[in-house]
Amino acid sequence: MSQHMRLLDCPACDAPSLFEGWTDPRRAAFFEAPPSEDQDPPSVSYTVLGCMGCGQPQLWKGPAGPDSEGGSQRLWPQVAVLAPGIPAPIAREMVEARACFDAKLYTAAAVMVRRTLEGMCIEQGMKKRNLFQALQELRDDGKIEGRLFDWAQALRVIGNQGAHFSEESVTREDAADALSLAEALLNYIYVFTAKYEEFQNRRRSPGTSAG
Question: What does the radius of gyration of the chain's CA atoms come to, in whole angstroms?
Fold first, then answer.
């Protein structure tokens, strides 16, 4: 049995930590997929590594196991990647919301989602400081539509639940849904809308055939 040691970022510890893994198949910690007919060696390796600080496991995919230089990818836990079109201050709020969720701080995650919505409204030029009214203004300006507005209001309600003391805590499921819906809303505002406008401008440009 051979042992592999790596220094990796641990989301649970929120710090770099020493990870260990084994190639002993009895421990199910290392698996090397055989090459397919159309795949040249080396084959892809999958490695499970455990944090020596908290015990949190990670699943890695790499061309030559955990000791390979470059080309390795962490498959689990996944790292949330936001679209590059989202402004940095807004993205920072979402990253912190995800970090709270990963740390099982679901109420804090809901509050950070609410802060993300507030930042989005301000960045979009909304004048109202009350979040409910700002979201209405966002809808009235045509930046979001019916169901997206309903989504945003639902996120606001969950955020309010987290921001104000209550005997009813924010559940893991509600926090997970809040993160997913917030990311979808940001993608719509900053990514899909921009792509649609780019498409429309290209279609209007001279020489573009309408038929």
Answer: 22
Closest CA to 110 of 121, 120, 102, 101: 101
> What domain range is 113 assigned to?
88-204
Co-location of 107 and 52 in the same domain: no
Query: What local confidence, expressed as pLDDT, does residue 68 receive?
Result: 46
pTM above 0.90, yes or no: no
Q: Which is nearest to 158 in space by CA: 148, 144, 168? A: 168
User: Residue 66's pLDDT is what?
Assistant: 46
On whether the CB atoms of residues 49 and 19 are closer than 8 A, the answer is yes
- DSSP E strand stretches across the chain: 3-10, 15-22, 30-32, 45-51, 57-62, 73-76
Domain boundary among 46, 76, 106: 76
Quick check: helix, strand or coil at residue 106? Answer: helix
Count CA atoms closer than 13 A to 180's CA, side-chain side.
6
Given this model, what pLDDT does residue 199 score?
A: 77
Buried/exposed code over 121-159 (b: 16+ C-beta within 10 A; e: otherwise): beebebeeeebeebbbbbbeeebbeeebbebbbebbebb
Measured distance between the N- and C-terminal CA atoms of the chain, rounded to whole angstroms: 67
Supply the pLDDT for residue 65: 43
Please list the ranges in the chain whose pLDDT falls under 50.
Answer: 1-2, 22-30, 64-69, 211
Instruction: Give, for 113, the enclosing helix (H) or strand (E).
Output: helix 106-123
